[in-house]
Write a structure and sequence with these properties.
Two copies of one chain form a homodimer.
Chain A lengths: L4 E6 L3 E7 L5 E8 L9 H13 L8 E6 L3 E2 L4 E2 L10 E2 H8 L5 E5 H12 L8 E6 L3 E7 L2 E2 L30 H5 L1 H10 L11 H9 L3 H25 L3 E5 L7 H14 L3 H4 L2 E4 L6 H11 L1 H4 L4
Parallel strand pairs in A: 1-4, 4-8, 9-12, 12-13
Antiparallel strand pairs in A: 1-2, 2-3, 5-6, 6-7, 9-10, 10-11
Helix pairs in contact in A: 3-10, 5-7, 6-7, 7-8
């Protein structure tokens, strides 16, 4: 089989699509901004934006359509309600794509799960049997590959490392809980913490990238914010490694671009909490595939179903 | 195949063995006290005690030998160094059993993993695809069944829920870390906390069972100790459920006998931290098999290898 998969990555800020061959090479891809949320954006406006993008990559010989989409969703039916896309609530994404691409397999998973799959198939986790792939960005998400296969969980929601509790009396989380990793380490959370601690950025609405840039210039509050996030990541990864005994943990997403400013405190906290031999053997590495990881992973749902598509 | 498996459970206080048929029924079993640790107990003394017990159950038509043993161990070779059995350090348990039972499959896993397997195969997790089985006793351990199969992890150590961090500035743990679930919720840890908080037990060297008995009688410090353990369990189970999306969490072990004194604060903390729909669907239930769970699970390594024995 040499036909490429049509891969789709649906996020709160961008819609991406591309063709990915059976070896995981991205042959062509493009993106458009996700239509801004609000009263003027209804479910069909967003769908039409996606259809417009897909037209460029639709061909006569597709192996199938693989999709990563923000969660939560009812899985594997993929009735999606992405937290950061208010226009879609219970939107029947898989059914709509099936109608749009009759006769082709259509498979949808969480976007962070697709990134983890991409990193396992063709990135930093390649060749390993037990891998945690993580995205640290506007949110904190992930996916589990254990025993060489993607773990879905009872409802298709395994991989939510962003909601591992790192401080039971920590800040409230958007999920409704408290002290989740995501509440501390997500980009907007970091920015808010830094502003409250006295950070004075140049821009009115600063981002995690601005914070990282200021930390590189030595701003002590920006450095402390990344340190706080790094340590929270280290604690959560220690807990997850004790539970799952990963060989490799691949950390990607925009905030991972902070490099040592994030990874050094991460390693420090991991080292304090992961003291047993088996956990200390786990390697924590930067993700390798960058922005195409989600497309590569979405394509893997089509190209390598024996490992990555196992709805029970 | 109707031959029974010889099942063995090796712990710090007792050695148990029995015959378990292919349906998971325990046909016969017995136990002896583990020879006391100390300078007079060497590795061979312990081995002879085990051999003596096994002689009772050795028969001409065994399907194989399944073993649960305290960790850590090098797996699947099962060179075991149980934390609570100092006489064995790097003891070649699987090799010795293979020499003792020539021609039979011999399979060894962590004792808490075997309990989780037993509960999945024939206990509280039966019929579910994604199950966490836990033992809350002198230590806190567990095992993961995901996608219907036992998860081993990169080095055979998956399932260490006792070392999920529930309080990053919490008490030191015997593993060398800090704030692990086990540091707070293990029986001896609870007893120590209660004594420091003013508990006045009748016995000089009280146990978790004494603490539970006093809590049942309304001793406020004993109640508070169980509450502290229950809440720590709830936080750790919330984290684990977010990561793995379990359908069922089965909680067993001596301390689980405290019933509502432990399970009510557990449910309270879980409810505070597990707010997403998928996590709230997980059911937390008492384990069903009691003291034979480890034997049943050890036998499953032999009788149901397609689910429970997958070294890569």
């Amino acid at each position: 089989m040499t036909a490429p998969a049509l891969a789709i990555d649906i996020g709160g800020t961008k819609l991406a699509a591309g063709l990915v061959d059976p070896d995981g090479r991205v042959l062509a891809h493009g993106r458009v901004a996700t239509p801004a949320a609000g009263p003027t954006t209804d479910a069909e406006t967003l769908w039409r934006a996606l259809e417009g993008l897909l037209a460029e990559y639709d061909g006569p010989a597709l192996a199938g359509v693989g999709v990563g989409c923000g969660g939560p969703m009812v899985w594997p039916a993929a009735e999606v309600s992405p937290l950061n896309i208010p226009a879609w609530r219970g939107f029947p994404l898989r059914a709509r794509l099936r109608a749009r691409f009759p006769g082709l397999p259509v498979r949808v998973h969480n976007d962070a799960v697709c990134v983890a799959v991409g990193e396992h198939w063709r990135g930093a986790g390649r060749g390993h049997v037990d891998v945690l792939g993580m995205v640290v960005s506007t949110g904190v998400g992930g996916g589990l590959i254990l025993g060489g296969r993607l773990i879905d969980g009872a409802g298709g929601n395994a991989g939510h490392i962003g909601h591992v509790v790192v401080d039971p009396v920590g800040p409230p989380c958007e999920c409704g809980g408290r002290g989740c990793l995501e509440a501390i380490a997500r980009g907007p959370g970091l920015v808010a913490w830094a502003l409250a601690a006295g950070w004075r950025p140049d821009r009115v609405e600063p981002t995690g990238a601005d914070l990282t840039a200021d930390a590189r210039r030595g701003d002590p509050v920006a450095v402390a914010a990344l340190r706080r996030a790094g340590r929270a990541l280290g604690v959560a990864i220690a807990s997850a490694t004790h539970l799952c005994d990963f060989g490799v943990i691949a950390v990607g997403g925009g905030l991972s671009q902070a490099g040592a400013l994030l990874f050094d405190p991460l390693a420090e906290a991991f080292d304090e909490h992961a003291r047993m031999d088996f956990a200390r053997r786990a390697r924590i590495v930067p993700a390798e595939l960058g922005q195409t990881a989600g497309l590569v992973g979405a394509a893997a749902l089509i190209h390598v179903p024996e490992r990555y598509w196992n709805p029970s």
